[in-house]
Amino acid sequence: MGEAEAEAGRRAATEARDRIRFEEDALEFADQVYRVARRLVSSREEAEDLVQDTYARAFRSWRSFTPGTNMRAWLLRILTNLNLDRGRKVQRTPDLQPLEEGDYYLANRLAASEGEQELEHDRVVERLSQDGVVNALSELPHDFRDVVVLVDIGEFSYADAAQILDVPIGTVMSRLHRGRRILKHKLAEESLG
Amino acid sequence: MSPADPCEKCEQMLQPFLDRELSAAEVTEAEEHLNACDFCRRRYRFEESLRRYVRLTASERMPPGLLDKIKELRGQPEGV
């Protein structure tokens, strides 16, 4: 076997190892990727499809991942792009109320109904049902929901969320801010009427 | 509320504070206010619990079987 052939063989072996390492690393994030996917779409079946499509693409284009960078964010970027490509229902921007009550809105409403001191207790939030939280999230307009889900469920930083969604960090902050306020409004409506 | 109301400022800082996105100086400022203000401290604790509660209740584990389906996708021809 010539030197060139031996070199090619070594390169192929190294590549195969890199690829397998990549696949194993990516699989480690499957559950975390699913958790985010599940809240971005309306059904479990859709979430499973979306996660499988994401991994199919990730495995095929593994070379475009830069080792040492945030792989979970890289996977989520593929996923959010695929979700957009699927032509999720075009959504009219809803008539958003001014929401002048602010970030403390839900806390203030609960404090008014439970007593100010009760807010010290964690169980106040238990007045909000699990279904209530899931429904409220699903009712957020897409642009807001993407950011709230990435940061609040996926625990991504503002910078990672900006990179995943390909928007400026200021946009992430304003959508997050507004999205959380809308969420609190919906939770207040559901739990307090 | 007057523009100088410290609680208004605290309300603005609360979300980035919980997200750990404030600068060190801003964290100190927020903590000083929280130490001195019962009202904001209760709201801070509430927001922290709410955040945890949302994360726990809205976070669904991957269904059994999905990981195996994903594993089968490995080794496909490359390309985008």
Question: Which features characterize this protein?
Answer:
heterodimer, A: 193 residues, mainly alpha, Rna Polymerase Sigma Factor, Chain: A, Arc Repressor Mutant, subunit A, 9 helices, 68% helix, 0% strand, elongated, B: 80 residues, 4 helices
Plain-language structure description:
- The complex is a heterodimer of chains A (193) and B (80).
- Chain A has helices at residues 3-28, 30-40, 44-60, 71-85, 105-114, 130-138, 142-153, 158-165, 169-192.
- With 193 residues, chain A is an all-alpha fold.
- Chain A has two domains: 3-85, RNA polymerase sigma factor, region 2, helix turn helix motif (Rna Polymerase Sigma Factor, Chain: A, Orthogonal Bundle), CATH 1.10.1740; 105-192, Orthogonal Bundle (Arc Repressor Mutant, subunit A), CATH 1.10.10.
- The longest helix of chain A is centred in the N-terminal third of the chain and has 26 residues, at 3-28.
- Chain A is elongated and about 85 Å long.
- Chain B has a domain at 6-60.
- In chain B, helix 1 packs across helix 2 and helix 2 (24-36) crosses helix 3.
- The longest helix of chain B has 21 residues, at 38-58.
- The radius of gyration of chain B is 21 Å and the shape is elongated.
- Classes of the chains: A mainly alpha (193), B mainly alpha (80).
- At the A-B interface, helix 2, helix 3, helix 5, helix 6 and helix 7 of A face helix 1, helix 3 and helix 4 of B.
